């Protein structure tokens, strides 16, 4: 009888202890949720709700001028957007910018990270110099490069004429304008990718390189057979982030060239902006925004599929 009572008391104490742990866990979770709740509310108010409202607007003749905002158009805005040659031209400019800038930014950032990771005096100065432009606001960046690109007194054209070369209309020549935007973007944003690669390099154990040196490997073979494979995850991250960032091109051409000359540097987001706030066609601009979102989403999914397949092959 006493053994049964002891077992019942033990079971009761066990249940009470479990209930106490459950209450403590719920108390901790509710406390954490209370701290996160203000952010969730702000996120819902300033991001989720505008996304839902914008999607609704895309089905209406919504205008900043206040006319026809209640006129339901169905899919007419989307059909018009798919047949809009200006949108296709802007998409082509965006893709061209992405194709040109992404490989350069990835390769250059890796090279700079390798240089800054070398055991040389004052290497912190190189790290600072490579990363510093990234912290500048885009308006300051454009102000600097607008002066550099100017004909006559601009530093770049002055150097060209010093060597007997012709001036280049960096901002006025349709053949040079896109490359001008690419150069500005590279100078401004390479610091972020550089920092990611530098962090990846510092995660590689030095013992690995020392063992390879003992086996007779030179610097090039260590770079090809060790550094690049060990930086694979970093490279994938850099490429994905860079492609998404390049597809969101807006401020550089908008402030530097205004999308010109002849709209050769006008990206999708600038065309959407002009449609919404110059032509006042908010509904049509919303439809274009969601179509472009699908493009970015598809590109991102393709990148993750390639990443997944690469990891699967690496694990075989």
TrEMBL record:
Residues 91-303 form the ABC transmembrane type-1 domain. This is Sugar ABC transporter permease. Keywords: Cell membrane, Membrane, Transmembrane, Transmembrane helix, Transport. InterPro entries: ABC_transporter_permease, MetI-like, MetI-like_sf. Belongs to the binding-protein-dependent transport system permease family. GO terms for biological process: transmembrane transport. The chain crosses the membrane at residues 30-52, 95-116, 128-149, 176-199, 230-251, 287-308. It is found in: Cell membrane. SUPFAM superfamilies: MetI-like. It is a multi-pass membrane protein. GO terms for cellular component: plasma membrane.
């Amino acid at each position: 009888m006493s053994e049964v009572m002891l077992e019942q008391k033990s079971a009761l104490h066990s249940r009470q202890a479990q209930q106490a742990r459950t209450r403590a866990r719920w108390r901790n979770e509710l406390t954490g949720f209370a701290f996160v709740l203000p952010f969730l509310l702000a996120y819902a108010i300033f991001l989720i709700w505008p996304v839902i409202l914008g999607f609704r607007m895309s089905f209406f003749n919504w205008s900043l001028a206040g006319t026809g905002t209640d006129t339901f158009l169905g899919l007419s805005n989307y059909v018009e957007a798919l047949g809009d040659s200006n949108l296709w031209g802007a998409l082509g400019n965006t893709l061209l910018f992405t194709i040109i800038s992404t490989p350069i930014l990835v390769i250059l950032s890796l090279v700079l990270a390798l240089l800054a990771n070398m055991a040389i005096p004052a290497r912190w100065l190189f790290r600072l110099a490579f990363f510093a432009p990234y912290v500048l606001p885009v308006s300051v960046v454009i102000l600097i490069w607008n002066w550099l690109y100017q004909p006559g007194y601009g530093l770049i054209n002055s150097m060209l004429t010093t060597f007997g070369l012709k001036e280049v209309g960096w901002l006025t020549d349709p053949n040079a304008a896109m490359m001008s935007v690419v150069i500005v973007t590279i100078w401004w944003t390479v610091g972020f990718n550089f920092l990611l690669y530098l962090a990846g390099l510092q995660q590689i154990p030095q013992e690995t390189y020392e063992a390879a040196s003992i086996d007779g490997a030179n610097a090039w073979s260590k770079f090809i057979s060790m550094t690049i494979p060990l930086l694979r995850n970093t490279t994938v991250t850099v490429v994905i982030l860079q492609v998404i960032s390049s597809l969101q091109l807006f401020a550089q051409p908008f402030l530097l060239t205004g999308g010109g000359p002849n709209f050769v540097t006008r990206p999708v987001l600038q065309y959407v902006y002009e449609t919404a706030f110059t032509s006042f066609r908010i509904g049509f601009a919303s439809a274009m925004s969601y179509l472009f979102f699908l493009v970015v989403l598809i590109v991102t999914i393709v990148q993750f599929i390639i990443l997944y397949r690469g990891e699967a092959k690496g694990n075989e």
